[in-house]
Amino acid sequence: MTFPVIVCVGAAIVDCIIKDFNPEPISATGFFAGSSDLMPGGEALNQAVTLQKLGKKARIVCYTGQDGAADILLNELHRFEVDTTFALHPEGAKTPVTVMFVDETGDRKSITTTAHRYNFHPERDMSYLDGAQALSLCSLFRAPFNDPDVVYALCSEASRRGIPVYADTKLPNANRLTLHDLRASLPLIDTIFPNEKEAAFYTGKTEPEEMADVFLSYGIKHVIIKLGADGCLLKNAADTIRLPALPEQTIDATGAGDNFAAAFICMRTEGKGLPDALRFANACAAISTTTTGATTGVKSRGQIEALL
N or C: where does the chain have the smaller number of CB atoms within 10 Å of the terminal CB? Predict the structure, then answer.
């Protein structure tokens, strides 16, 4: 028997999270920070692990190396029973590692390497869509979704199979695509989840509702703008819904958007309406910021329901 799964395609990365970094040197080559943590991360891993915690079956499609960093990622995925059949790790490949500097507000800056520009081609074998309830493109505008042909191949195949497509977005770090570059794929996307900075970058607008209107003009059904401390905005052709952020103490915002997307997709695959799915996602994202790391804050569905 094939159980329905939610397929998460995108990055699995090891995050080195450094907090309270002091730029003043303490020696000729040394600096001081309040803490440092080595955490499994990346958009696809974050979403897949959170979905498993929420009681869904997640399948990850990602690219890692054969090194110690890959061991960290695969151990995390196996611990939460994510389907890793399509987690590729060819010989000689390097696993992406990101160094993240997190300030006292939870905001972050990151350093990436050329390993993030991996030779990953999820369009070549899409059998991972067998039995899928939903397809999540976890990092639109970043590899492998910085190639319009790759995006269209996945969106069109999912559409052919009747599988709804969800897309989180990222600012570019290599190829700089525009919305116009993806115009063939965008009408095939059910919901897109840019944060406010990403939405401003891709639309050229400054107001969230105007940003959403630009995305909608390309044929996307539902647009959710994640507004950080100001909550979130959902807009489609018929409705506009605003939710304030929940008053949780933010320790680290790493992965909050991934948790939001996972929770929203979880609710929608269970037939929940947009307002209920949005509230659940908003709460999941808030809880995810209360600890260091992208996947440590959320423990279970019950934890989110209790906050709501």
Answer: N
| Backbone φ, ψ for residue 41 (5° rounding) | -160, -155
Burial classification of residue 1, based on how many CB atoms lie within 10 Å of its CB (0-12 exposed, 13-18 middle, 19 or more buried): exposed
Q: How far is CA 143 from the centre of its chain?
A: 13
Q: Supply the pLDDT for residue 28.
A: 87
Measured CA to CA, the distance from residue 57 to residue 77 in angstroms comes to: 12
| Domain residue ranges in the chain | 5-21+34-115+123-298
User: Inter-axis angle of helices 43-53 and 256-269, to 10 degrees?
Assistant: 50
Classify the phi-psi angles of 272: left when phi > 0, otherwise alpha if psi is within -120 to 50, otherwise beta. Answer: beta
CB 297 within 8 Å of CB 290: yes
Of 208, 268, 253, nearest in space to 17 by CA:
253
pTM attached to this predicted model: 0.91
184 burial level (CB within 10 Å; 0-12, 13-18, 19+):
middle
What mean pLDDT, rounded, does the chain reach?
A: 92
Assess contact for 46 and 262: CB atoms under 8 A: yes
The Cα angle at residue 195 between residues 194 and 199, in degrees rounded to 5: 65
Which of the 8 DSSP states describes residue 103?
A: -
Helix (H, G, I), strand (E, B) or coil at 225: strand
> From 2.40.50.840, 1.10.10.10, 3.40.1190.20, 3.40.50.2300, which CATH number describes the 5-21+34-115+123-298 domain?
3.40.1190.20
Q: How does DSSP classify residue 27?
A: S
Token pair of 182 as six digits: 């993806």
